[in-house]
Amino acid sequence: xxxxxARAGVPGxxxxxxxxxxxxxxxxxxxxxxxxxxLVWMRVPAYIVxxxxxxxxxVLMFRYVFGGAIAVPNIPGGYVNFLMPGIxxxxxxxxxxxxxxxxxxxxxxxxxxxLRSMPxxxxxxxxGRLVADTARMTVTILIVIGVGYAVGFRFQNGxxxxxxxxxxxxxxxxxxxxxxxFTGLAIGDEESVQAFGLIWLFPITFLSxxxxxxxxxxxxxxxxxxxxxxxxxxxxxxxxxxxxxxxANLWKSLVWLAGIFIVFSPLAVRAYKxxx
Amino acid sequence: xxxxxxxPAILVEGLTxxxxxxxxxxxxxxxxxxxxxxxxxxxxxxxxxxxxRILTTLLLPDGGRALVEGRDVVRDAAAVRRSIGLSGQSxxxxxxxTGRENLEIVGRLYHLSRSTSRSRAVELLxxxxxxxxxxxxxxxxxxxxxxRLDLAASLVGRPQVLFLDEPTTGLDPRSRLGMWEIIxxxxxxxxxxxxxxxxxxxxxxxxxxIVVIDHGQVIAAGTSEDLKGRVGGxxxxxxxxxxxxxxxxxxxxxxxxxxxxxxxxxxxxxxxxVGGRGSDALIDAVRDLDxxxxxxxxxxxxxxxxxxxxMALTGHAAxxxxxxxxxxxxxxxxxxPAKAAAQ
Lengths: 276, 343
Description:
- The structure holds two protein chains of two kinds.
- Chain A has eleven helices and no strands.
- Chain A is mainly α.
- Chain A has one domain (19-274).
- In chain A, helix 3 runs parallel beside helix 7 (159-187), helix 3 (79-94) crosses helix 10 (229-242) and helix 7 runs parallel beside helix 11.
- Chain A is elongated.
- Chain A starts with 18 loop residues before the first helix and ends with a helix.
- Residues 1-12 of chain A have low confidence and may be disordered.
- Chain B folds into two domains: 10-227, Rossmann fold; 233-303, 2-Layer Sandwich (Alpha-Beta Plaits).
- By secondary structure, chain B is α/β, with parallel strands linked by helices.
- The longest helix of chain B has 16 residues, at 173-188.
- In chain B, the strands form three sheets. Chain B has a six-stranded mixed β-sheet with strand order 6-7-8-3-9-10, sandwiched between helices. Chain B has a four-stranded antiparallel β-sheet with strand order 2-1-4-5.
- Chain B is globular and about 75 Å long.
- Mean pLDDT of chain B is 84; it is low at 320-343.
- Classes of the chains: A mainly alpha, B alpha/beta.
- Chain A binds chain B through residues 1, 9-14, 16, 25, 28-29, 32-33, 35-36, 39-40, 43-44, 108-111, 113-120, 124, 276, and chain B through 1-2, 4-5, 53, 56-59, 69-71, 78-79, 81-84, 86, 88-94, 96-97, 101, 105-106, 108-113, 116, 137, 153-154, 157, 160, 328-330.
């Protein structure tokens, strides 16, 4: 792996690698960063608590504490079946706390400076972060589904739609992840990032169809809850899991998610380039 | 490392950079010949870190140009990154990973093969006296060990030019000496080094050439001897244990020196520059202090230190916090090994 064909006049400085080599490095650097991030994640008990135990607690609390008080007519299997797609969506969104916090930490500690001063692919830090966090999120979602099954949840609509529901949840999570990456890099301070995450993630997940039927909310809140992306995504997931019309909500979800990627990917990349 | 190429390892011309209202660099020039050590000396907020960040491609300059190994840091940033190593003010290591894992990952990111990354990590861990701690997470390391690991990480790619931004800030005096030892051995291996520091003894100890910057400008350059020559002669120094009598002591010796005596109110140390008058001035000082009845300790005539140089050049001591001085990143403890060592 030596690209040390010295350019005339400046011996010792490796020549510029070819496009092909650069592309290969972009992939291998992303994988290296991914592996590093997953290794870090597995070593920090707090991360495990946030990504595994917290969602499981939400499942148990809503199933057994609030569940009895929430009526969901027309849902086959009752509240637990209504709840699980919502919890899974919320889990995907909350998993992005880790993204924002980790990037802010790396920025604060100078790790990003170190990486940016190295001849590695510049895209790899963000790409590796997203790949690792997507893997982490997927594991969490599967655990939550397992716990859901233990407390009575059942997919009602067959295996194919169930898998599609998980895929949609992950794509939704990645979209939120891109927003989180932007906030983490733009704010750059671990505690502020955490506080900011609470301020926007809690409202958008709770003021949606995730935990209660929107029809039980006051009218002014319904106006918001009915028309925000988390509701579209959760409704689509719910229809995939339990049966029912999918199409309308799916289109709205996809448009929203595409919009998020289009707006926030360049913002995140720009924040990374400017990070200091 | 070939010696064929002409031209300095680092060349900086008229570099400027502002952050909003703050003019961090107001046009600095530097030239560092291959295989030498340049010490960039200045107080907090002088612009040292900004200069290093531009030279290591982390920040774009507003004006002027900078070349590292003949490559422009803006136009040819990727090539510059292949020839440099950077170790910043804080240890940029992943604390949850072991020392070995940290270095192996850096090796992989330098596109070394898996086995080369592994052997390079072992080599560096041994060289930096971290062999026994190789498989412990870096979180368990002492501050000095973390800095050594960080420095090791900056060397994985065998850089021709190494940038160390305040490598010993916040370290205790012993770790600091250890760090100096390591830096000396690196330089002996032929690496070009640019080192920023706010500790004058550090620059004196490690650098071939010293550049003093203050408020984003180079205010003096030369060898440590050259700079000491600027002070123009010797210094009388003594300590007044009774802080209430500091002003009496100043009055007593104000006639013997060139310019005002410098008083450190915290330590009670008074410095007076006495030019070429050396021993005559010392006799005067003894007589005047005796007459004033102020008790002093350790009255002596000494050769000027870089501290005196800084005083002479800027009118303030190097380690004094500047009002409104811009400070990047977190604040570190106000530990000051330079002063600790001087006492």
